[in-house]
Amino acid sequence: MSILAWIIASCIAGGTLSIVCATFFALGNRTQNYLSGMVSYAIGALLGAVFLNILPEAIHLAPNVAVLSGTVLFGILLFFILEKLVLWRHCHHEHCEAHVTHEPGHGFDNGRSGMLIIIGDTFHNFVDGIIIAAAFLTDVNLGIVAALAIIAHEIPQEVGDFAILLYSGYSKLRAFQLNLISSFSSVAGGILGYFTLQTMQSWIPTLLALAAASMIYIAVADLIPGLHKRAHLRDTLQQVVLIVLGVGTVWLMSVFMAE
Q: Which InterPro entries match (predicted)?
């Protein structure tokens, strides 16, 4: 089996397996009843992935940390503009549905956060493909280990992404389709990484910074404000616990990957 075949097979298997595992968890019959909790968990998973994995890796690879930080700031502004464009597309007057704030699990946000999470996830999966290619080009066994570690890391994030897509108003089937399509961007990253690895490596910090920016923006601008609609102490404690659980899950996966 050639190295390129190993890379493609690992990217396809990894993306499919992580999506299937996440969907199996998220597609329960009572999904709508605990969607608010899933969104809280998603916030923790997103922020954990950004600050425990993506940004540290980007800083490690970046030749200039100041430029990298500027890229994150640019990315946050970029996703703010993208969200505005989505709002303008759906609404041209002051009192339309796009201006109404909904609670998680009790309404939708016209696809805004769903669109942004797919864009950010595509960047992230693309970089994962490059990382898998680099590992296989070093050693096949290392490539297999790297692919397994990435799958383990992706499952909690994909559960969070699925919750965000449902929160954003997508059907369960459409959420599955979008996550699956986004996951296959790792195949493109793996193939390009195989043929032009030296060139692509210089782009990894920028791609990671943009992925981090999208996740920060979604968590802080789109999801956290919805949680404030449930201000009772019991709801707040539940939200905090689930956010910490999301961060903790990503941290455990990071420890596993480090080993």
A: ZIP
Distance of CA 184 to the CA centre of its chain: 14
Angle at 161 between CA 166 and CA 136, to 5 degrees: 150
Q: What are phi and psi of 4, to 5 degrees?
A: -60, -40
Give 68-75 contacts, CB < 8 A, sequence gap 24+: 68/205, 68/206, 68/209, 71/205, 71/206, 71/209, 71/210, 71/213, 72/209, 72/212, 72/213, 72/216, 73/213, 74/213, 75/209, 75/210, 75/212, 75/213, 75/214, 75/217
Q: Name the amino acid, one letter, at 200.
A: M
**Any idea of the CA torsion for 217, 221, 226, 227, to the nearest 10 degrees?**
70
Query: Considering only CA atoms, which of 102, 84, 118, 80 is closest in space to residue 223?
Result: 102
Residue 132 contacts residue 154 (beta carbons within 8 Å): no
- Name the percent of the chain lying above pLDDT 70: 83
Amino acid letter, residue 7? I
pTM of the full predicted structure? 0.70
- The tens digit of pLDDT for each residue in 232-256 reads 888 899 999 999 998 998 888 777 7
CB 165 within 8 A of CB 35: no
Largest CA distance in the chain: 59
